[in-house]
Design goal:
alpha+beta; Translation Initiation Factor Eif1; 4 helices; 31% helix
């Protein structure tokens, strides 16, 4: 019984103090700024997507939960799909003008970048 119990535990080579749970220390502090303080860029691109056009919105300083909620609203208004990648939103299709208007109505400072 003792051999079975020891084989399941990870051996500790060195432990300074108490609890070994460092999840709080490893969490990254993400600022969740209000929309008026964020400067967003909207760009349509095809690179790396097999010829499919995707509109990318970058410059967000929000928590992932807030980005997911915003993405859901924008997808519903555009009638298309999308995803959150690396603090930016990717919306399928070319919707630069429509997204610019929607973001400005929501209080964001947004600009169209690229050609």
């Amino acid at each position: 019984m003792a051999a079975k119990r020891n084989s399941q535990r990870q051996p500790i080579a060195y432990q300074e103090f108490g609890n070994t749970d460092n999840s709080q220390a490893l969490e990254r502090g993400v600022p969740d700024l209000p929309p008026q303080q964020q400067d967003l860029r909207i760009q349509a691109t095809r690179s790396g997507r097999k010829g499919k056009t995707v509109t990318i919105i970058t410059g967000f300083q929000h928590k992932p939960e807030t980005l997911s909620k915003l993405l859901k609203q924008l997808k519903a208004k555009c009638g298309t799909g999308g995803t959150v990648k690396d603090n930016s939103l990717e919306i399928q299709g070319e919707h630069k003008q429509k997204l610019l208007e929607l973001l400005i109505q929501s209080g964001y400072k947004a600009k169209i970048s690229g050609g």
